[in-house]
Design goal:
This protein is mostly helical and 255 residues long. It has one domain. The protein has eleven helices and no strands. Helix 8 crosses helix 9. The chain is globular, with a radius of gyration of 19 Å. The mean pLDDT is 87. Keywords: Membrane, Transmembrane, Transmembrane helix. This is ABC transporter permease.
């Protein structure tokens, strides 16, 4: 079988694996409730106090803030989906069916990252319509919507890639979730509060700081830029993927 055909076949299997378990549907439903719910909160607050609305803002700007909640949901879903068959021992029959580990790694990474990213972006876009329903005068300009979708697609895609990488590298749902929370939330917030220059430097180079800057426009240091934040997110995602690839290709899959 050619590599392209094997990749396509494995990709279909990975898609089926994601949506054949209850946890994926639970994640999707809970994430939808959270993102759309916060969209309603943001919209109702804006409608109740129009003076707080920044001139030139659109409903897309309000929904953009729900991207952080989408990010954590997508990150957790990517970890759980990636580690599911390691937790159950299903990785052994998976590799018997797809013995070429590079094919499995590529298919799992692409399918999980694409699926979770599209889910997150779709929910945030839906959240924008919820915001707009409360404050229709803000509008939903197409160009602004496409720009926001592109920005969030990069943020959520990088987060999902980090989740897949951590999940496959640790082969433990709990360990990967702890690392993900530390890198995306606890580490940046904690280190930024300490009165040392080096802790600010470390916080700035954590993926959570990059995500916060791209969503809210603020970070641990004033010299952060959009480019540096994007590079930080991408570098962490790729590093996690390299680590997961090494472990899958070089070690026994059931250890």
């Amino acid at each position: 079988m050619s590599p392209a055909l094997a990749l396509a076949r494995t990709g279909r299997a990975e898609w089926s694996r994601i949506w054949s378990v209850r946890s994926s549907w639970i994640f999707a439903v809970v994430l939808a409730v959270v993102v759309l719910g916060f969209g309603a909160v943001i919209g109702s607050d804006a409608a109740a106090d129009p003076s707080d609305i920044t001139p030139g803002s659109t409903a897309w700007d309000g929904a953009r803030f729900t991207g952080m909640f989408a990010l954590f949901g997508i990150l957790a879903m990517a970890v759980v989906v990636s580690t599911a068959d390691h937790a159950t021992g299903g990785i052994v029959p998976t590799l018997q069916w797809t013995p070429r580990r590079g094919i499995l790694l590529a298919a799992r990474t692409v399918v999980v990252v694409a699926t979770t990213t599209l889910l997150g972006v779709g929910l945030v876009l839906a959240g924008a319509t919820v915001v707009w329903s409360f404050v229709p005068h803000l509008g939903l300009p197409l160009v602004d919507g496409l720009e926001m979708a592109g920005d969030l697609g990069f943020i959520l895609g990088s987060g999902a890639l980090l989740g897949v990488g951590l999940g496959l590298a640790t082969r433990s749902t709990a360990a990967a979730l702890v690392l993900a929370i530390a890198l995306m939330l606890v580490g940046p917030l904690l280190l930024a509060q300490l009165p040392y220059e080096w802790t600010l430097d470390v916080a700035t180079h954590l993926p959570g700081s990059g995500a916060l800057f791209l969503i809210f426009g603020e970070g641990p240091r004033d010299d952060m830029t959009t480019t540096s934040a994007r590079l930080t997110l991408a570098a962490w995602g790729l590093a996690a993927l390299v680590a997961s690839g090494w472990r899958l290709l070089a070690t026994d899959a059931d250890r």
